[in-house]
Amino acid sequence: MLRVDGLHAYYGESHILRGLDIEVSPGQIAGIIGRNGMGKTTFLKSIVGLLRPRSGRIEFLERDITASRPEARAKLGVAYVPQGREIFPQLTVHENLLLGLEAHPDRPRRYDEGVFELFPVLREMLGRKGGVLSGGQQQQLAIARALVSEPKLLLLDEPTEGIQPSIIMDIESVLWKIRERGDVGIVLVEQYLEFAWRLADRYYVMEKGEFTAAGEAEGECDTALLDRLTA
């Protein structure tokens, strides 16, 4: 579904991403972990088209999208939930969800209410403005807004940041359900190592714009090892 080869990206003359390679298949979760400032968010922005790489290639559904605009990638099925959620605080929950349909290839007028099976709390808050929701509720709304576009690839940047444990468990349950459907690939950037390990099929450790370690996420999470790798 997603294939990235030799990706290099810069901010001005600062070399941020250095030759990254990754493949993600439908029904697979790739977990990217590492300290702040290592290039994880830059990597997601390169995939979604918010940052043009200097060199390398990004393929999605066997199409070269390296030079495609963000809206074109969204129409193909790439959805991005940024760090900090970035919902529209003055719009209601319902209006935020409607905006998610702008990325749907068919642009339907109504979203699939099956999203409330994943996030039941949102059904009770459709008329509330996004800005009055708690941080965890805003995160659920941000993910739901991405899902109503029926994406094939979901990019998540720090979905547990600042979220209470009970809602983290709810989000984990949703991601398991999406994974089990087998038709959506997920790239998960996360600093909560055990959360990423429980969900990911494969993990990548990023340091100074490079993947310095990678492997299958199997068995119990070796937090001591991962702490050393990301320290």
* Strand order of the biggest β-sheet: 6-7-8-3-9-10
Please summarize the sheet with the most strands.
6 strands, mixed
* Rough outline: globular
Number of domains: 1
DSSP E strands, number: 10
Rounded to the nearest angstrom, the distance between the terminal CA atoms is 31 Å
CATH homologous group name: P-loop containing nucleotide triphosphate hydrolases
Any idea what the radius of gyration is? 17 Å
CATH topology: Rossmann fold
What is the overall number of helices?
9
Classify the secondary structure makeup into a structural class: alpha/beta
Helix content: 25-40%
Q: Under the CATH scheme, which architecture would be assigned?
A: 3-Layer(aba) Sandwich
Uncertain stretches: none
Please state the average pLDDT score. 92
CATH class: Alpha Beta
Strand-residue proportion: 25-35%
Spell out the helices and strands N to C. EEEHEEHEHHHHEHEHEEH
